[in-house]
Amino acid sequence: MLINLYIKNLAVVEKATLDFGKGMNLFTGETGAGKSIIIGAINFIIGGRCSKNMVRAGEKKAVVVATFQDLSEDVRDFAKSQDWDISDDQLIIQRDLFADGRTLSKVNGMPVNVSILRQLGGFLVNIHGQRDSQILLFPEKHLNILDNYGDLNEILAKYQYHFERLKKINSELIKIKSDQAAKSEQIESISGQIREIQQAAIEEGEDVELESESRSIKNSAKILENLSLAHEILVGNDESSGAVDMLNDACLRLETAAEYYDDVSVLAEKLRGLLFEVQEISYEIGNKCQNLDFNPNKLDLIESRLDEIFKIKRKYGPSISDVNNRLNFLESELEKIELYDVRQNELIVSQKSETKCLKDLGEELSQKRRAVASKFVRAVSDELAFLDMQGVKFEVNIFPSKDKVCGMECVEFLISTNAGEPPKPIGKIASGGELSRIMLAIKNVLAQKDRVSTLIFDEIDTGVSGSAAQKIGLKLKQVSKNRQVFCVTHLAQIAALADSHFKIFKKTLNGRSFAEVSELDEPGRVEEVARIMAAGSITNLNLQTAREMIEKGRKS
Fold first, then answer.
1. Would you say 474 and 556 are in contact if contact means Cβ atoms under 8 Å apart?
2. pTM
3. Which of 16-25, 197-206, 328-337, 531-540 ranks highest by mean pLDDT?
């Protein structure tokens, strides 16, 4: 229940603090006085949108603070899920609107985002505005109303879940079937590429080794010539000694000198070690000269192999590693295509299962909707009779749905306003006043299903007067016995039924307009109800009638 509302710098409201109680809290005032601002402030505090233009000119921000108490179980559970402290059975919501359009929201001092605020607001307040009646003009909205009344949203969610699953299965099946025509061609193409790569049997680094061997064969004469010369320099020939013999002579000379001069022995040892290394190198060079076999025919084989590798790399490369990766990819793609039949069979099984599940849920939903529709018609008809629409026949027309997104059927509300005439779509025959009353009847029926403790009716009496207005007021009064009701009205019949009556008026000071809100005492209520009734100046008769209406309203 909303017990306090604080508004600062919102539109023409400079500052207002309003205390509310149980029952029917009612707002009246001249057209344009700012009644919509109060409702707008409540909507803003529960996460509704608000333009930056609503910040009072010249101010940095607007502030709205609302205090709720006597919290419902739904609110308590939600608060617990958010770790809010509600030990005092109270929620204080503050929302700031800055001049640049930013907003800042807090619940019991804790910052929250707009999404959380809207979820919380759904448990705290229901706002029924003037435009709500327009919903009745759109048949596609009627099914949602019926499902809300019958608590069918859970089974509808299951139905729609399986509907989407079946839709995806069907889509994949269509794709697979459309691919079947190209499947054989794909398999042949991919298999050919795989065979080509596999037959080449290229090993990592093979191209580098072959290129090196090719260079060696092409330069075999130079290689052998230089190896031979190097060997001859080291070991000598018939005409001269080589480096090995010279190093050996040098070692002998040093070793002889070392017999007389100890410091030379170290040098002799080093040179002897170097001699051994040179002898080993000369031996290896000699072996290579004897064992080198540069077969010109082998060069042709190498060049042919390199050409084959080059073509494969150019087609699937550019490197051997890329070729191998391409082979893995092609093998994976071939496996997928070859498994199309397996996947298709799996999808067909799933399709049958989902179709049956959807059919069962759809039939269950249809049965429940038809049962709920009968109860809904009776409940709405009772409400309409109370609202001076006894002669109106209300029906729920259920007919097959084409797309079946929300079930097997569609729903449209029909009415007949004249005896003997068949029911027709509401939008075609209902007047503005009738729409308001029908919507109020539906709202009252739906209100019995939810647990929101605060209901707001913003000029829902538009287009009605006389006895019908009186009945609307009585219905709102009846609802307020168990819920906190806020109502904006221009009708004296409804204003006289208020438990708490607030007047909104506008004044001008220093060239600026200000909207003020004040709770009326008894004389103030009488004068305001009389003002609403009066065509011009308030007469004593207007005042007397207003007193009688208010007194009668207390007994309602």
1. yes
2. 0.63
3. 16-25
